[in-house]
Amino acid sequence: MSSSAILDAHQTAQALPYLALTQEIEALLQDPTVAVPPRIVQALHGGGSLFVMPAADARVAITKLISFIPTNAQRGLPTIQGDIVVFDVQTGQRIGLLDGPTVTARRTAAVSLLAAQHLAPRRDGPMLIVGAGVQGRAHLEAFHEGLGVQEFWIASRSASSADALVAHARSLGLQAQRVDDPNAALADCPWVVSATPAQEVVLSAPPHSDAFVAAVGAFTPRMVEWSAPVCQHLARTGTLVVDTRDADHEAGDLLQAGIDVAALPTLADVVGQTARWQNAHRPQGGPVFFKSCGWGGWDLAAARCMAQGIAVSSAPQG
């Protein structure tokens, strides 16, 4: 392939429909050619981080280069910025450049969606989204498209941000309302997504007894959204699953609660029905807490999805 697709944020989103991306993530988890070395996280002066995340399979190779500046919200700037470069493994040619924040939002929501497809104890009732930023919006769209969720309760430190996401949901024909106390709302919501800046504990009440929780805001050992007592309660009464083994040293909520993250099953264990998952699964029920920290493999799945779309569009018509 001689040409390179350079996609802006809108084009990147168009290349990554949620259902196709979720299917690609599931396929990647069963692909033995996938190689994802540990990501490099360089601390920056002022509290930010620079992430360098390579990954490859038999067809494509990527490097994701993004910055995370949590204080950018006060500057009116995105907290995540950067790009993903996609290469053809056989020729070494660059075949694509994807908008990093868009990929991060969509693949994270797609990973949560895949986990919910396999793990959610029930499929009815409203979804509580805590954090009305980019990830909150992506999860709203993904769970509506992928699982048909029709009702959303939105909580945010910023009432205007919550109202904006409520308005977006209503523009899609969905039911939505702002809630000012997310801890009180937990008792009524069998779906929960926490996507806050994760600079402090926001959720200190236990979720519904048969809830599915996707906790995506905290992705370093210092970050936290859920209180230690709640995490310990979930470890006793429910099922804890992490996205990858990288969470062993990155899942701030669980690590700060003193939980042995390395003993928990991963999403790959769930998809593959491994012995680790079978041993961890609790048939008596209880809430499911899916802790997502991010992984270069999810970005590789997005690159595969994009490359497949390019291949289809460039195939000769007959």
From TrEMBL:
The lineage of its organism: Bacteria, Pseudomonadati, Pseudomonadota, Betaproteobacteria, Burkholderiales. It comes from Limnohabitans radicicola. GO terms for cellular component: cytoplasm. It comes from the Bacteria. Pfam families: OCD_Mu_crystall (PF02423). GO terms for molecular function: hormone binding. This is Delta(1)-pyrroline-2-carboxylate reductase family protein.
